[in-house]
Amino acid sequence: MSALRAGPEAGQAAGTDAIRIEDLHKSFGPHEVLSGVSLTVAPHEVICLIGASGSGKSTLLRCINLLEPIDSGGIWLLGQQVTGPGVDVNMVRRRVGIVFQSFNLFPHMTVLRNVTLAPMKALRMPKAEAEASASDLLARFGLADKRAEYPDRLSGGQQQRVAIVRALAVQPQIMLLDEVTSALDPELVAEVLDVIRELATAGMTMLIATHEMGFAKDVANRVCFLEDGQIVEQAPPAELFTDPKDERTQRFLRRIVQAGRM
């Protein structure tokens, strides 16, 4: 299968998975972080990845967006293989947006400039068009009055919403969200989760690493539990949270309940 590249053939073929991962392995030194992960994500599907810190959730997302090289296995995005020689990395990152738990906004740039930078550079979008699109996105997520502010003048929740808008500005077909609420004060979590719910309702394909079990239960089509770099169990949230089959999933969810997080 051909590598992801620019041009008319870069579109998704009908009936193909948005994401397909086969037997993915990734190690850092002697420590194997991902140990044979296989997963498919259908177009418009929302999948939440749950598991303890260090289970491999963040590394999996970073491998999908080619921020980390894999050791073996394969990744296909929109029907085209993106692991191997000849891959257009920039094309992958235009089609797959990623948002991290740290906001990673440029502190010396206004909100508007943060959001328009990638469309102007990566998509060669004219400044006026990029600013009009950014203004529409900022208004959609309740940030219209913040376009001229600098990040340090915003709350954590507002900064994370700007980070999500920035990822959306390049019009990705897939969004990867890595613990986007974990750096926020509890009272700010809800406003960010509301943005993600809106994206899910609009049909965005999303793979979300989260510790928010109630949110995963509410928004996901499927929940995957990871432990020791493997997907131990996956099922619709109503099934996984109420009737987990694997003893390791049961043990994890018991700890979550005991901690008052579900």
Radius of gyration: 18 Å
Count of helical stretches: 9
Q: Structural class of the secondary structure composition?
A: alpha/beta
Number of strands: 10
- What strand order characterises the main sheet? 6-7-8-3-9-10
Largest sheet data: 6 strands, mixed
Would you give an account of this structure?
With 262 residues, the chain is α/β, with parallel strands linked by helices. The protein has a single domain (8-258), classed as Rossmann fold, CATH 3.40.50.300. 36% of the residues lie in helices and 23% in strands. It has nine helices and ten strands. The protein has helices spanning 57-64, 89-95, 111-122, 127-140, 156-168, 186-201, 213-219, 237-242, 247-258, and strands at 19-28, 31-41, 46-50, 72-77, 80-81, 96-99, 174-178, 205-209, 222-227, 230-235. It has a six-stranded mixed β-sheet, with helices on both faces. A four-stranded antiparallel β-sheet has the order 2-1-4-5, with helices on one face. Helix 3 (111-122) packs parallel to helix 5 and helix 5 runs parallel beside helix 6 (186-201). The longest helix is centred in the C-terminal third of the chain and has 16 residues, at 186-201. The chain is globular, with a radius of gyration of 18 Å. 40% of the residues are buried. The model is unreliable at 1-10 (pLDDT under 50).
